[in-house]
Amino acid sequence: MMHTYHRTALFSVLALSVIANAAAHAHRHSPPPVEPPAPNPSTDDDIHWGLRTFIALISAGLACALSMSAGVGGGGILVPIFNVILGLSIKGSTGLSQAVIASSGIGVALFNLANPHPFFPHKPLVDFNLVLVLTPALLLGISFGVLANAVSPPWLITVAISIVLTYMAQRMLRLAIRMRNKERECEALEALRWSAEEAENGSDCALDSGGAPLARAISSLGQGARPKLPWTQIAQLVALWIVFAALDLGKSRHGRCTVPYAGLYLVQVAVALTATLYFVKRAVQTAAAAAEYLGGEEGTDAVPSIATPLLSSPEQQQQQRREEGAEDRGNATSPSSSLSKLTLTSSAGIAVGAGALAGLIGMGGGFLLNPLLLEIGIQAQVAAATSSLMVLFSSSSAAIAFAFDGRLDLPLAAVFGSVCCIFGFLGVTTLSKVVKKRGASAVVFLLAGVMTLGIVATLSFGGRRVWHEIAVVGKLPGFQPFCTHHHDSFGLVEIPW
What we know:
This protein is mainly α. It has one domain (51-190, 207-473). It has helices at residues 2-28, 44-48, 51-69, 75-85, 90-114, 128-151, 154-191, 196-202, 213-216, 231-252, 259-293, 314-324, 329-333, 341-361, 366-375, 380-404, 410-438, 440-473; strands spanning 303-304, 338-339. Strands 1-2 form a two-stranded antiparallel sheet.
């Protein structure tokens, strides 16, 4: 498990290195400032809203339904759809993808808030403690990625998308195979008609190892008391998002090589670091108080992750212990169900890399966040719900940054976002029937297949576009000037077939 965790960390670090080198290269080789090109004129009425748009709209809706049920944002499918079917440039596709992911995540977030935690019915399915620890770093990474997207050439973004899609499809395929084997094992055990006690003690078939966990959680909706929402934590999360949005608005009003822009960027970094350290420290202190109450060793920095909330007050944890009985105390203090201070801090570092890569290629970051949460021991349904909420905040922050920079087609974003919001919620609720009939692996197999098609389409059509640019310009396009407030054209790219 840990070697996969290390690979994920290395993947994020390499992504940050590539983005940093790209920005440095663009800054060193920036030509004198030039006037930004005019946006592509009036294509909305006669092309954007035709048959291609309708096909892209339905395809994007289905992609959101599949992706949200699996706990990922869906950018790996949406970007090829917008680039290939709708005909947007690769940069226009990344901005629109972020807006659509944010919109579709709203319905899923409402669904998750209405669902209880699998271990604590009085708490929501989303682990707001982990959300508070990881979101500041994720939003900071998104800011880096959006900036890198502005200066990177389209061919580099196309290559990055293809690499990430290949990684995601391979991981999804392996996960689907493991899930299929697990489902067959469970079917065999059920056929043996084990007693309820033997099935509970001798089989772990009820433990979902991943894939379509939100759709699997449908069965618990409406059962038992409605979970109590942590409004204080929600308010802190919303306030953090507003601060980042305000700083993005301020940066959009200044050139990139100006003192105000640099100052606002430094403020963003300071806010992210301060918030992350504060929530990690608060988590450790709360865990120490809980461990002392439960009879653990004083001064421990273990942070319960599955059985005990990270940032709830000691009084809340004491009340929770009284309600749930002494039999759960062993789970709360066992090493296998705790997160250390080092794990939380390193996870926040990985979140920065995930956000940077997501902002660069137009994804929400769930393709790295969901596996990360699973690797550190978070239950599958909780990991998917928590990842989906973080994707909502990260993609909405990225969409706002794209909009402030003038690199988001707002009419398209409104239409596609509204449709995908409905599709995302319906997908989560209706896919439960597929899960019950075919098994969760069927959804993951389908998702992996769609991602594979996205790889082929992105490489084929992206390569054709690059060839067309070389034929017109005479060379491979380079990095955009860093010090020019460049507004990318999100119009259609006409290519001779």
